[in-house]
Amino acid sequence: DAKTTQPNSMESNEEEPVHLPCNHSTISGTDYIHWYRQLPSQGPEYVIHGLTSNVNNRMASLAIAEDRKSSTLILHRATLRDAAVYYCIPTGANSKLTFGKGITLSVRP
Amino acid sequence: KAGVTQTPRYLIKTRGQQVTLSCSPISGHRSVSWYQQTPGQGLQFLFEYFSETQRNKGNFPGRFSGRQFSNSRSEMNVSTLELGDSALYLCASSLGGQGHYGYTFGSGTRLTVV
């Protein structure tokens, strides 16, 4: 399994963009980069995933470095409901999501 | 569309008993994975099923088993329960797994072993 490194925590102001970084230098060439978030007392929620190109959906954008050794999750306008633990998870053929400690995002009103 | 449904939501069992948890995936999803979440160990992968076959397994003892039916619904069984099995058990479904598709998680079954 690829090893990931994320900051322990980040803070943001409401309605401002947030950039959540992740390093995954040992990622396999066929692993997709998944991001999930988890609010207290809830199951994880899918945010976005990609392989090589940058990806956008209604929740967020995913910027993937050209060498694929790092990625950044971008929340364009943070809301209070975005306060959660965010996990960056390279995953591939074994279908296994290995959850690390993630980044705890706090959003200030 | 309906999400991933896990039943029951809460369960209390006694040490030594066995328990069966159920997961109904999103319609059309053929991959179902199970995870255990505890405060000490975080989220840990148990196993994944695809088209009724176990495709991958985590590092859990043989007391933990599962199966998948032809309609993709899955069950997880834990035999000879131990106090340490108290956890939130989460099920996740995906169109095909293997990283190509995102995984949708259910709300989980909270198992307490006394």
Give an account of the 3D structure.
The complex is a heterodimer of chains A (109) and B (114). Chain A is globular. By secondary structure, chain A is mostly beta strands. Chain A has strands at 9-13, 18-23, 32-38, 45-50, 55-56, 61-64, 70-75, 84-91, 103-108. The mean pLDDT of chain A is 93. Helix content of chain A is 0%, strand content 46%. In chain A, 39% of the residues are buried. Chain B has 114 residues and is mainly β. Helices cover 0% and strands 53% of the residues of chain B. Chain B contains no helices and eleven strands. Chain B has strands at 5-7, 10-13, 19-24, 31-38, 42-50, 53-57, 64-68, 74-78, 87-94, 104-105, 109-113. In chain B, strands 2, 4, 5, 6, 9, 10 and 11 form a seven-stranded mixed sheet that branches. Chain B has a four-stranded antiparallel sheet with strand order 1-3-8-7, with no helix packed on it. In chain B, a hairpin with a 5-residue loop joins strand 7 and strand 8 (74-78). Classes of the chains: A mainly beta (109), B mainly beta (114). Chains A and B meet through strand 3 and strand 4 of A and strand 4, strand 5, strand 9 and strand 10 of B.
> Largest sheet of chain A, described in full?
5 strands, mixed
Largest sheet of chain B: 7 strands, mixed
Helix residue percentage of chain B: under 10%
What's the alpha carbon Rg of chain B, rounded to whole Å?
A: 13 Å
Order of helices and strands of chain A: EEEEEEEEE
| Unreliable runs of chain B | none
Q: Biggest interface between protein chains, with counts per chain?
A: A-B, 23 and 26 residues
Element string of chain B (H = helix, E = strand)? EEEEEEEEEEE
Tally of DSSP helical segments of chain A? 0
Assembly type of the chains comes to heterodimer
Low-confidence stretches of chain A: none
Distance between the termini of chain A: 37 Å
Arithmetic mean of pLDDT of chain B: 95
Measured by DSSP, the beta-strand proportion of chain B falls in over 45%
